[in-house]
Write a structure and sequence with these properties.
The chain is of the alpha+beta class and 170 residues long. It has five helices and eight strands. It is globular, with a radius of gyration of 23 Å.
Length: 170
């Protein structure tokens, strides 16, 4: 009788552990709050409108309106500017953009005058490569009068919507 109770208890524990350790579905929620099964999650990619929204949003955040002394007109603090970037990029990348393109002096934020890198061309085709079940790599071949031909590589993660985690050029 003790053996039967022990076996039954052991079987119940294994069943409970298995049900916790192997979920049948995962939930990926973004702006549109959709649920995606584990199989479908491997193929999730941003659609063209999402890509354009994120890329143009980042570009608009980089190109800030300033006064004659390069002081930002639309953001009074470094925190406000960082939060604006975080709508389009991961927090780590937001910090890197703010540190590289802007300076803070006496609670005012100033743009550091510099050239901008070659950028995404929404009218040009691009390749979208899944790198994991929640990230993709956007690759676009472009040409620019200043730099000639270049390849833009953008890593995007699905974190409460699509966010850029890295940008590189070849």
């Amino acid at each position: 009788m003790k053996k039967l109770a022990l076996i039954l208890c052991f079987t119940m524990m294994i069943a409970m552990i298995f049900s916790i350790a192997v979920p049948k579905e995962i939930s990926i929620q973004g702006d549109d709050q959709m649920d995606v099964s584990a199989i479908e999650a491997e193929n999730i990619q941003p659609d063209k409108e999402e890509v354009i929204h994120v890329m143009n949003g980042l570009e608009d955040t980089l190109k800030q309106e300033t006064d004659d002394s390069y002081k930002l007109k639309n953001y009074a603090t470094e925190q406000e500017l960082t939060e604006a970037f975080e709508a389009y990029v991961t927090p780590e990348l937001a910090r890197a953009f703010v540190d590289y393109y802007f300076r803070v002096e006496a609670d005012d934020v100033y743009v550091i005058p510099t050239h901008t890198e070659p950028w995404f061309q929404e009218e040009n085709e691009y390749d979208m490569i899944n790198t994991s079940n929640h990230s993709v790599q956007l690759v676009q071949e472009n040409e620019n009068d200043m730099v000639g031909s270049y390849t833009l590589v953008v890593e995007m993660l699905f974190q409460n919507g699509w966010k850029i985690s890295d940008i590189s050029y070849k």
